[in-house]
Amino acid sequence: xxxxxxxxxxxxxxxxKVVLREGTGDIRVVVGMATCGIAAGARPVLxxxxxxxxxxxxxxxxxxxxxxxxxxxxYEPVVEIFEAGKEKVTYVKMTAEKAKKVVEQHLKNGRVISxxxxxxxxx
Amino acid sequence: xxxxxxxxxxxxxxxxxAKATVVKxxxxxxxxxxxxxxxxxxxxxxxxxxxxxxxxxxxxxxTTRTTRKVGLGLPFLKxxxxxxxxxxxxxxxxxxxEKTNHGTAVTACFNKNHIDxxxxxxxxxxxxxxxxxxPETDFIFIHTKNKxxxxxxxxxxxxxxxxxxxxxxxxxxxxWIKDFLTESYKEAVDK
Lengths: 123, 191
Fold this sequence. Notes:
The structure holds 2 protein chains of 2 kinds. By secondary structure, chain A is α+β, with helices and mostly antiparallel strands.
C-alpha cells in the first residue's frame, strides 16, 4: 500500500537532484481544458503528454500546462506548442496516440507532424 | 460528456478560475434496498456569483460578458443529473456580499438505477489532472460508499510532507497520487 512515508522518500530523492531538475523550459505544451476540450477528450491527451515527456527524458526542456477555451471548439482537443524563436504549432483533434507521436517526433526530434496541425484540417 | 468524472473536472476548473484556494470534491454513494444514488458536491472558496448570475448560470444561452466563462459546463451536469430523475443545486455567495465567507457549492444527485445514468468513469484521472494543472490550489477529495470512505486525498497533507521546494505536479508526486488513489479503491473493493 502507498504510504505517506513513501512521499517523504520521494522528497528526499528529489531534493538531491533539484539542481538537475531546473528545466530551461524551452518548449511549452499547452492543452485546452475548458468544457469543449474536456468533452472532446482532452484529459487523456494531457495525461499522455505528461507521461511521455517523462518517459522520453524531455522534462528538462518541455513543460506541459493547461489552459481554457482557445476559441476553436470544433477542433478540440487542441494542443499548442510554443518554442522560443519558432512559430507556434497548433495540433487539432488530438488523441492519446497522436500525443505520443508528437512527443516522439516533434518534441524529441524537432519534426512537426504537419498532418495533425490545424493548417492540414482547414485545407 | 462520456463520464461524470469529466463533468467533475470541468466544474472544478470553474472553481480554480474563480480563484479558489481550496476546492473540495465529495462523492457520496448510497446503495441499499430502497435507494441507489450518487451525490457529487464540488465546493470552493472562490469569488462566488451574484444572485443575478446564479439565476441564469444553468441557461446555456445566457452569455453576458461577465459570465461567458460559465458556458456549457453547468448545463451539461444539470442534464446528466436530471435525466436520471435527479437534480442540480447551486449555492453561491459572491465576494461583494460576503467578504470572508464567499464561494460556490454545486451539488448534483443521480439515480444510479436509471437507464440514462452516466457512469462515474476514471475519477482518479480527474483528480490527477486537476493537481497537475493547478499545483498551488488545495484539493480535498473524499469518495464514500454507504458512509465508508473508499478514497481520500488532501493535498494540504501532501504539501506538508513535501515542503515548499517540491511542487505537487512533479512527475514523481503525480505518479504517487495516481497509484495511491488506485490502490485505495482496490482495497475498498477487497474489503
